[in-house]
Amino acid sequence: MVRYVYDFAEGGREMAGLLGGKGSNLAEMTRMGLPVPPGFVISTEACRAFLATGSEPDGMAEEVARHLAAVEESAGRTLGRADDPLLLSVRSGARFSMPGMMETILDVGLNDESVHGLARVSGSARFAWDSYRRLLQMFGATVMGAPAARFEEALDALKRARGARSDLDLDADDLAELADTYKDAVLRETGEAFPQSPAEQLRRAILAVFESWNGERARLYRRRERIPDDLGTAVTVQRMVFGNLGPDSGSGVAFTRDPATGRPGVYGDYLPDAQGEDVVSGIRNTVPLADLERLDPASYRRLLEIMETLERHYRDLCDIEFTIERGRLWMLQTRVGKRTAEAAFAIADALVEEGLIDRREALSRVSGEGLARLMFPRFDAERTPEPLARGVAASPGAAVGAVVFDSAEAARRAAAGEKVVLVRQETNPDDLPGMVAAQAILTSRGGKTSHAAVVARGMGKVCVCGAEELTVDTARRRATAPDGTVLDEGRVVSVDGSSGAVYLGEVPLVPSEVMRRLEAGEDGAAAGDGLVGAVTRALEQADAVRRLEVRANADTPEDAARARRFGARGIGLCRTEHMFLGERRHLVEEMILARTPEERDRALDALLPLQTDDFTRILEAMDGLPVTIRLLDPPLHEFLPDRVELAVRVATATARGERPGQRDTELLEAVDRMHEDNPMMGLRGVRLGLAVPGLVAMQVRAVASAVVARTRAGGDPRAEIMVPLVGDVEELRLVRAEVERVLAEVRAESGVPVDCPVGTMIELPRSALTAGPIAGEAAFFSFGTNDLTQTTWGFSRDDVESEFFPAYIDRGVFAVSPFETLDEEGVGRLVRIAVEEGRRARPGLQIGVCGEHGGDPASVHFFHSAGLDYVSCSPFRVPVARLEAGRAALGDETDAADGADGTDRADQADQADQARGADGADGGRRDSGDGGDRSDPSDRGGGGDPAAGR
Ligand code: PEP
Ligand code: MG
Predict the structure, then answer these.
(1) Measuring CA to CA, which residue among 619, 515, 518, 522 is closest to residue 571?
(2) Which end of the chain is more exposed for a tag (fewer CB within 10 A), N or C?
(3) Number of helical H runs and strand E runs in the chain
(4) Helices of type H across 390-447
(5) Which of 520, 522, 496 is nearest to 507 (CA)?
(6) Smallest CA separation from ligand 1 atom 6, residue
């Protein structure tokens, strides 16, 4: 017989899959003997059964009734009893927390009769009516589907009529009147009266939680955070305790350390005479948690004790929700708290120092996405003007954008490529699309735990909240600063989520401290305490455990040197195309326009010394480490001038009656001759080498001559030659024969024993599927996952991401672009086939990846599991790849240990959740399909060369 309901006392945090995060942690706190109001959890299994069949599973109602009876017995009261009602809270709690996504219903059990009973036993009619109107509002909106705005409007209207500044100024009669208004609104909006039966309230509230799993906001959040759609949510049913019973009551949230910086201390917000919902909604301004020491010293001391107990027990930062009911402290929630990237590194490092975790575990608690975020620039302190306004530094980082005042506008402008800052009085879950689209979120109300702050931190977005000096008028789409400056929609501001300052205009950025250290290439000992030290120690731990080697994609000596400082052990892809651009372009044109073999050879001969010099300097920068040089890949016409420009020049000259320049005419002819409808599938890669005589030989000679030069200079050059876009072993055999011939020539001419391994890229499905025979001719494989993704899906890597991927992601075809994170099911399958068949044909075959996925955290884990030897990525992502390669190696051990110890599993789940929170989705949307470096923190920009952008 399946069981669907569990008492808190029966569970623990290892049961998060079944009881959800909230339920399992309440169970854990109950087990620890902490003051938790009694309750029970309806499992995710029940939710899944409900979602599958549309009705509650058999036996669930009876189980709920039995557990309710137990809660009633412990409370000495029954649900909704007219003279002294037991009241319940009904909350959602999925495996992974989804802030603001799922609905909470408080005060279940109140009705027209029991509200009077509550008034009597509590001694406060105001409190009773306040609770009732809250139930009507939450139940009416969440369960019955009445528009939430109706309730807010009614409350605002009543406040205006009474001249009340806050809801605290409304008395019992006002609230009773409001309850009537709400009941009318429910009936009017839904055609149904608010149910007076407490049992029916409970039943419908539970089912509404189940249903909210499939709400639009929940789906959006899951897609962004890559949370599977089929987990379902648990429902926590708990005896109500009341923070709104007067000044000796209240609600608060707390963190055991600062979730923004990781520093130890008391962090949180408290709101006297309020329920928990009020604290996070930002409706009233909270006081710092430290003020509780003055307001209620006994509860404050007890809370600090519990916070310490929890942190030691969970061995991590915990976040906590609590309520004080007439001087008695109750714990309503705890979980391993979300944190910024900075805090994640700082806390993991500090917990090692405190002896709570070891370095391996510390490594599992940070992430590459977090590291990437720390490598981004901050505002230049020297060049920041006076702030326009200040608020709470809620989620760190620096962002610049045009102000917009609603979610839809933010999404619209962002889709058109504009950077925006979403400005609101406060945010609610409806603002989520705008928050996703914005660079930063700025609110005039609420503290560090307001909706805006929590969600922004979860997404890694810059956020300043509670900037009360700003008057935000969303209706007129403008904000006014204290000095009278008016921010109309579209005006640019700079938002510093680390200091809370907001500046007018665009403030210049400076590199991050972490970046500075990585650039300097210092070791951990020199890094000292603080964030930079914490990052360095995490990287050193990753290096100590990882199996994957990390190389860089670099094609200049400067990039090679930087990559080396960042910890790259070689170059996995030197794209030579940039060597054919700029001033050298005319030599390439000569080669293309050549009419005779002699003319072509002359052009190639002129290119040779230039390329030799490039290779020599790159080999010097990577002395002693492998440098994989790829033969020219892009179609040649990419090196010719733009066809339209040429045609216009020729036509204008003709129209003027002049003779067009001969070179222009020739070039236009060549461009026309070489035009391809599908150049990505045309004369490129290995095909160029086979079709253009002398091209391979010149490049190989340049590589070999560079090796000779470096050897003579006493260096240790380790050049490897890589052939792109091979689809058949015969292509590779032919090119390789030519490579070997030239190498032999250079050996004979120079007397230096030049030997370069010749390998191939695997970037077409056919090469993956014929990897066995290809391995017979290849000293190494390197997966070109950009082209492999393009050709496996049939997606043009240059077009689709901006064209229709947003719709695909919205409609759930995939959660993330396959050009960003490797599609394991399809492209990954080809990778596995090629690894297996390649190594079977040639045991010990060296295999790496040099597509953009080589620097993508999730993909790095895949390449680790697929047995690759190395990943290669842009220099700036080398530290990220090192860290993730280390974390991937830890995964091997924890997978093995998993079966043995359930607690480990719970820890990992917390970490996964936390990593989601810390490093949630944004992390820099990458334009990975283009192979360019737009994800680089330094934002080096593109340059205008067509081939350079590939
Ligand atoms: C690839 O296709 O993954 C690759 C690395 O080559 P490019 O991006 O230069 O086509
Ligand atoms: Mg390619």
Answers:
(1) 619
(2) N
(3) 38, 31
(4) 407-415, 432-437
(5) 496
(6) 784
- Report how far residue 232's alpha carbon sits from residue 863's, in angstroms, rounded to the nearest whole number: 30
Pull the structure tokens for residue 831.
């990778």
Which string of b and e fits 127-150 if b means at least 16 CB within 10 Å? bbbbbbbbbbbbbbbbbbebeeeb
**How far is the centre of ligand 1, averaged over its atoms, from the C-alpha of 901 (Å)?**
43
101, 432 contact by CB (below 8 A): no
* Angle between helical axes of 878-898 and 530-545 (0-180°, round to 10): 60
Expressed in angstroms and rounded, the spacing between residue 744 Cα and the centre of ligand 2 is 28
Name the pTM for this structure.
0.79
Compute the distance from residue 518 Cα to the ligand 1 centre, in Å.
26
- pLDDT band with cut points at 50, 70 and 90 for residue 215: confident
Pocket probe for ligand 1: among 555, 575, 820, the residue whose CB has the most ligand atoms within 8 Å is: 575
Write out the two tokens for 129.
Answer: 């009516």
d(CA 762, ligand 1 centre) in Å: 10
Q: Which ligand is nearest to the CA of 850?
A: 1
CA dihedral 809, 813, 816, 819 (to 10 degrees): -110
pLDDT tens digits, residue range 684-730? 999 999 999 999 999 999 999 999 999 999 999 999 999 999 999 99
Asked which of 630-639, 756-765, 847-856 is least confident by mean pLDDT, the reply is 630-639
- The sheet carrying 104-108 orders its strands as 5-7, 39-42, 233-239, 88-94, 104-108
Task: Give the model confidence (pLDDT) of 457-508 as tens digits.
Answer: 656 689 998 888 899 999 999 999 989 999 999 999 999 987 889 999 999 9
State which ligand 1 atom lies nearest to the alpha carbon of 553. Answer: 5
- 522-538 tens-digit pLDDT: 665 566 778 999 999 99
**In the numeric block, which tokens belong to residue 657?**
């009656």
Which residue minimizes the CA distance to atom 10 of ligand 1? Answer: 787
Report which of 31, 45, 39 is spatially closest to residue 3, judged by C-alpha positions: 45
Residues sharing a CB contact under 8 Å with residue 341, sequence separation 6 or more, in sequence order: 366, 367, 369, 370, 371, 373, 374, 460, 918, 919
Q: Which residue has the tokens 């708990």?
A: 238
* Calpha distance 782→718 (Å, rounded): 16
C-alpha–C-alpha distance, residues 750 and 708, integer Å: 7
Q: What is the mean pLDDT of the chain?
A: 88
Q: Which amino acid is at 227?
A: I
How many whole angstroms separate alpha carbon 492 and alpha carbon 504?
7
Which residues have CB under 6 Å of ligand 1?
573, 575, 633, 763, 784-787, 850-851, 931, 950
Q: Is the pLDDT of residue 674 over 70?
A: yes
Q: Which atom of ligand 1 is nearest to the CA of 850?
A: 5
Catalytic residue numbers, as ranges: 451, 850
> How, if at all, do strands 462-465 and 440-443 pair?
parallel
Per-residue DSSP letters for 270-313? EEET--HHHHHHTSS--EEGGGHHHH-HHHHHHHHHHHHHHHHH
Q: What is the C-alpha end-to-end distance of the chain, expressed in Å?
A: 59
Pairing of strands 104-108, 88-94: antiparallel
Give the whole-angstrom CA distance, residue 150 versus residue 163.
Answer: 20
Residue closest via CA to ligand 1's atom 8 equals 931
